Amino acid sequence: MKIENGELSIIHTPLEMQALSQNWQKGLSIGFVPTMGFLHEGHLSLVQESNRMCDVTVVSIFVNPSQFGANEDLSSYPRNLERDLQLLSKHKVDYVFIPKAEDIYPPTYRTWVNVTGISEVLCGASRPGHFTGVATVVLKLVNIVKPGLMFMGEKDYQQVTVLKAMLKDLNVPTTIIPCPIMREADGLAMSSRNTYLKGEARQQALCLYKAILMAKQLYREGIRDTNMLCEAASEIIKTNKGEIDYIEFVDPETLAHVGYAEADTRMILAVKVGVTRLIDNSLIQ
Ligand code: AMP
């Protein structure tokens, strides 16, 4: 059933979404922005890029239960659908797909997409099963929305890498367009989870960006040994009372550890600030 909400068309069922996409596919290019809602400028930058490059933009809002671990924040994940819809209508999105969990994962559900290797390192090591949940839901959404282009943030660098591999391996005719990380004025990478940062945690959360800036400065000064870069970054995190999950310097495609930093090396890190786990990354150059 298609529900008209001002200028936005809200679609709830996979079948209806699929029928619309099948029609559009005959002559229009479809851009897709999958999200978990609680939208911010980072999400909206993806929408803008999709509007620029495609005839039709579909945004999905779905807090995907299968990518949350048992002790993670599925039940408390921030939600504000009314505000999200207002923002999307301001940004000229025509179609918002908001499926119900039981339509994505009916009781008989049994198929999971497992991208080996690159899903098991970094965030995959700390959050076992996370990328299986992500790859599965994104493949399902892509099969429903049928986009030529899918817009995703480099904020979730490993996610983009895993999903690119999945689409390639499974011959899915959708191309990911990675978009730059949007940051607050002080450098904090925008994230729906930033709403958890209360009191001094908001200031402490800057340690990820400060650690990145420090490593980049040392790189500019000629330091290439990633152990040294890592040590300097760790120092900043600890001074700001962050709890390091990982700080890594990796090959941009394989996500394999590199000992010697080069211009295309990615610095990637996950840090717990109070109760909130934050991620960030950057080219080292
Ligand atoms: P989420 O709602 O957190 O699942 O994110 C939906 C999409 O928005 C993903 O492709 C994210 O990488 C992207 N995204 C989240 N935060 C940012 C940001 N700060 N800058 C750019 N893209 C972002």
Distance between the amino and carboxyl termini: 49 Å
Bound molecules: adenosine monophosphate
CATH architecture field of the largest domain: 3-Layer(aba) Sandwich
Helix content: 25-40%
Q: Would you report the number of β strands?
A: 10
What is the subunit arrangement here? Answer: single chain
CATH C-level name of the largest domain: Alpha Beta
CATH superfamily of the largest domain: HUPs
| Shape category | globular
Structure class:
alpha/beta
Q: How much of the residues is beta strand, in percent?
A: 15-25%
Task: Fill in the CATH topology of the largest domain.
Answer: Rossmann fold
Integer average pLDDT: 96
Radius of gyration: 19 Å
What are the secondary-structure elements, in order, as H or E?
Answer: EEHEHEHEHHHEHEHHHEEE
Q: Main β-sheet, in a few words?
A: 7 strands, mixed
Summarize the structure.
With 285 residues, the chain is α/β, with parallel strands linked by helices. Helices cover 36% and strands 20% of the residues.
List the helices and strands and how they pair.
Blueprint: E1 2-5, E2 8-11, H1 14-24, E3 30-35, H2 41-53, E4 56-61, H3 81-90, E5 95-97, H4 101-104, H5 123-126, H6 130-145, E6 149-153, H7 157-169, E7 175-179, H8 200-204, H9 207-220, H10 226-239, E8 243-250, E9 266-273, E10 276-283
Parallel strand pairs: 2-5, 3-4, 3-6, 4-5, 6-7
Antiparallel strand pairs: 1-2, 8-9, 9-10
Helix pairs in contact: 1-6, 6-7, 9-10
